[in-house]
Amino acid sequence: MGRKWNNIKEKKASKDANTSRVYAKFGVEIYVAAKKGEPDPESNRALKVVLERAKTYNVPKAIIDRALDKAKGSGDENYEELRYEGFGPNGSMIIVDALTNNVNRTAPAVRSAFNKNGGNMGVSGSVSYMFDQTAVIGVEGKTAEEVMDLLLEADLDVRDILEEDEAVIVYAEPDQFHAVQEAFKAAGISDFTVAELTMLAQNFVSLPEDGQAQFEKLIDALEDLEDVQQVYHNVEFEE
Fold first, then answer.
1. Do 59 and 163 fall into the same domain?
2. Are 138 and 193 spatial neighbours (Cβ–Cβ below 8 Å)?
3. Domain harbouring 220, CATH code
4. pLDDT recorded at residue 210
5. Do the domain assignments include residue 238?
6. Do the bridges between strand 80-87 and strand 93-100 make them parallel or antiparallel, or are there none, so unpaired?
7. 52 falls within a domain
8. What is the pLDDT of residues 79-107, one digit of tens each?
9. What is the pTM of this model?
10. Domain range enclosing 100
């Protein structure tokens, strides 16, 4: 995996940091997760995952509280979870996850973003088979060896532990997400550089300079759509 997770994370952070667009999307995601069960992260694992990820993006407490209060109160908006798959320049692969209260608005918007930016949508399953759902948790101030010892003490056998830039990134099975975090917290580590369930490509590709610029334009167009929550891909950006 090399430095690929941080490479992707840094690219997103450079554009997404402290924007109202990102906060609004987290508000919807928190609301939907809270409505699925109890609006309490201790009894609602889906909500806990979203809140942990929101923390790494510095989502203001006011945004989180507003979404939770809406879920607890009279909020009755119905959102559907949708997944679209497609291709970008040079056969690059893209997964788009959306939460929408209007399917008739979302599908054409996603298709248009693909078509206008050098991509094309595929059928369901045309891309996702090349990705694995993965728990990704990052910490600073530890070496890979120290993290490995910490997790072994907690009887956790994860997929991989890699030093990437100044962080140590743990790649684990999705059902290990909370257990890995609890192992860190038991060791006095409660701040994570990344903490999310993601779709991680099995193989990453690089693009030529002109293809990379076109690809970034496509990803930006997809991420700017109101209903799109997450965009996953298999491109490693050149530094």
1. no
2. yes
3. 3.30.70.980
4. 83
5. no
6. antiparallel
7. yes
8. 999 999 999 988 899 999 999 999 999 99
9. 0.88
10. 80-128+204-233
